[in-house]
Each structure stands twice: as structure tokens, then as C-alpha cells.
């Protein structure tokens, strides 16, 4: 039995200018452009092996050890596009095996708990699409491939690049110009760090797909956000990244997170992603910046209560000193070298609800790897 295979890893990305709203649900076309920072795969990544064989009977996917359905419209859209591109390759060179006609076996694993509420679908779809693109030896560039990942999950298109990434919303109804592009590579501004404060929460969030549908349909503030605020911030944030202007980058990041949660609250019925823990962390970050006399750290929140903090490596000690009074006993907290003289506890007495801290940094885009999750007969190892 001949099994063709390719393996790749893909990163998580956390938006600093949020994607929230679709103008086309099937094609995952957004109502605004967005920007993100790709996080290091040392700490958070999906590893996927894609294989195909004339002997496989059906498309199958194993995710973190369990057989999962491939039948969702989104996954089907990705597989269809990839097979069409492969057909083009086979058409040009008739000697190539007809992989586009073979069934696929895909095995995928995250190096972080899926349950932590971290953006796993972005890394997941990016790894799926990138590994199949490698298996099929597609000549298309990463922006082209990002359009396929976008159909799986909007934010996934940004995980095709490392460093600082923009998803240009595009105008075309067929989505051909709605793609991810690199704003700046990791090497341009490599000292960007990210600290993820995992906040435990019992209530079930509104999933982002239905949450954004509700916002588009009911929020009065939403049009102001997509027509006025985001287009201007998109240009300002790209320019702040190119200039490595942290205070501007950080201020825009915080304002845009707040604006996104404001349109959630303005949806009807309202959507609440931030909880009391999230809100106390917001206050604490503003306090740390105030004491410093300049903006050295930014917070941002996605469709859940977890905080992601961005800062430059040289300021890490100051930030950890501000967090220490609350989180020094939490798993993953790194002790600062110096101790702050400011009495934070007199300002916010306590912050409970953080269960884990992941200290990470900016990272690279998807990579092909020789590590395979599939054996010679095309089944998970
Ligand atoms: C708040 O990409 O998960 O994280 O396209 O429906 O799969 P779908 O949504 P998804 O939404 C992410 C929303 C966000 C903001 C962002 O990542 O830009």
C-alpha cells in the first residue's frame, strides 16, 4: 500500500484588531479587516499529518486521539478547494499521482489543552490546510492558501504567517481578495512577549460564529465600529508596528478589545464575554501603565474571559512585579527580579479566578516537519 504524507505545525494567533462580523457566512468574509500577532509554537501549536492513498476508503480525521467528523460545511469547503488546486497541478504534469482523487487520513494534535478556551480553531485549520497543501505540493503562495483556511475559520487565515499579520477584508463577493498578508516578520520586532492569563469560567460562552451574527443583526454601535473606528485603526496599527511604536500599538490594542466587547454588550440580547476577573485585570493593567508613566503593557480579550497581555521583553520585570501580588502562586507565573514599591493590594484587594498562566512570545508561521503522526498503513501511530 502506498501512503503519501506530509506533516506540519501551525501557530495560534491573537488579534490586536478584532475580526467580529461576517458579510458572507458561507465564505467567511468579514465586515472589517483585522490584525494579529502570531504566538510561538514552542508553547502553543497544532501538529497535523495529512496522508492519502488509493487504498483509503473514506476521508477521516483524528483530533487529539479521537475520531472526529469531517462533515462540517467549513471543513468540506477547505478539502474541496485543496483538491481543486491539486487537480490543476496534476493537469500540468500527467506523470504525477492522482492524489486529488484519493481519500485523506488526517491526524492532528495540540500541545495545549483544547479546553482552556484558547483559540485552537485558528491553529487547527491553519495546520490542516497547510499540511494538505504540502502533501499536494501546491505552488500557491501563503496568501492564496490563507483564503482556504479562512473558509474553515476566519481567524485561521492569519495563522498562515508568523510575526505581525493583517487579514485584508477585501471587497469582492467571491472572497478572492479576502486574505492574510504579512505586516512585518517576527525579526522586525522580535521582543514582543505575550502572557496568557487563563480565567476559569462556569458559564458557557456564546460561540464566536453565532455571537458575531447576533452583533451584526442587532447592535447599533456596530456600524460605527466597522465604518469609522476599525478602518482608521487598521492603518494606525500597521504604522505603529512598522515603527515599533509600542505605546501606540498597545493603546490601539486595548481600545479595540474594549470596542469589540462594547458591541457585544450592545447586541440584543447582550453578549458578555468578560467576567469580574477579566475586568479586574483590565484595571490592574491601566494601573501598571499609570505608575510607569507610559504604556508598557496592553490587554486584549477574545470571545471569553482569558486575558492576553502584550509587552516588550525589556519591561517584563515591571509587569511581573505588578502581577505578583495576585498571581505569584498560580501555575506558570514567573517570579520577577525586583519587587514593586507600589501597594497594589490597597488598589485592588484581590483577583481570584485565574487558573493558569502561559508565558509566551511572538512566533513563526507554519512549518513542515518530519515528525509524523501516521504509520505506514495510514492510521494514527
Ligand atoms: C473574537 O475565527 O473563531 O477571536 O470565522 O466563525 O470561525 P469563525 O470565527 P473565529 O472568530 C474569532 C473572533 C475573535 C477575534 C479575532 O480573532 O479576530
From TrEMBL:
Gene Ontology MF terms in the entry: ATP binding; diphosphomevalonate decarboxylase activity
EC number, UniProt record: 4.1.1.33
InterPro entries registered for this protein in UniProt: GHMP_kinase_C_sf, Mev_decarb, Mev_diP_decarb, MVD-like_N, Mvd1_C, Ribosomal_Su5_D2-typ_SF, Ribsml_uS5_D2-typ_fold_subgr
Pathway(s) this gene product operates in, as recorded in its UniProt entry: Isoprenoid biosynthesis; isopentenyl diphosphate biosynthesis via mevalonate pathway; isopentenyl diphosphate from (R)-mevalonate: step 3/3
Every Diphosphomevalonate decarboxylase-like N-terminal domain range: 10-180
Record-annotated Mvd1 C-terminal domain positions: 194-367
EC top class named in words: lyase
GO biological process entries: isopentenyl diphosphate biosynthetic process, mevalonate pathway; sterol biosynthetic process
Catalysed reaction equations from the record: (R)-5-diphosphomevalonate + ATP = isopentenyl diphosphate + ADP + phosphate + CO2
One GO CC term on file: cytosol
Keywords assigned: ATP-binding, Lipid biosynthesis, Lipid metabolism, Lyase, Nucleotide-binding, Steroid biosynthesis, Steroid metabolism, Sterol biosynthesis, Sterol metabolism
Family stated for the protein in its record: Belongs to the diphosphomevalonate decarboxylase family.
Protein name: Diphosphomevalonate decarboxylase
